[in-house]
Amino acid sequence: MIGKKIQQLRKKKNYSLTELSERAGVAKSYLSSIERGIQQNPSIQFLEKVGAVLGIPVEEFLQPEQRRGSAEQTDQEWDELVQEAMRSGISKREFRDFLEYNKWKMERR
């Protein structure tokens, strides 16, 4: 899974194996074995180096694809809800009051 993610990101950036290995300071043969799934548990240091070149944090390599997708979906849903609230004329103060009321209600249960 990690290897496929690295390979996808590398190709998206149009880097060859050689180019990514040189930029990250890792062995090309090791990078290749990670991408092909021969090696499956790269070190955090390796992921930090490769991630720095590819522009992603180590955590993103470790998250399952499903979780990442659902987190993005949830963020989009929240964005849509906020937009809808704004269109309906709810002020920030009214929204904060609603949140405080809900917190108070939950604490009383």
UniProtKB/TrEMBL annotation:
InterPro entries: Cro/C1-type_HTH (IPR001387), Lambda_DNA-bd_dom_sf (IPR010982), SinR/SinI_dimer_dom (IPR010981), SinR/SinI_dimer_dom_sf (IPR036281), TransReg_Diox_bact_type (IPR050807)
Protein name (record): Transcriptional regulator
A GO molecular-function descriptor: DNA-binding transcription factor activity
Keywords associated with the record: DNA-binding
CC annotations in GO: cytosol
Boundaries of every Sin domain copy: 65-103
Domain HTH cro/C1-type, chain residue ranges per copy: 6-61
Pfam families: HTH_3 (PF01381), SinI (PF08671)
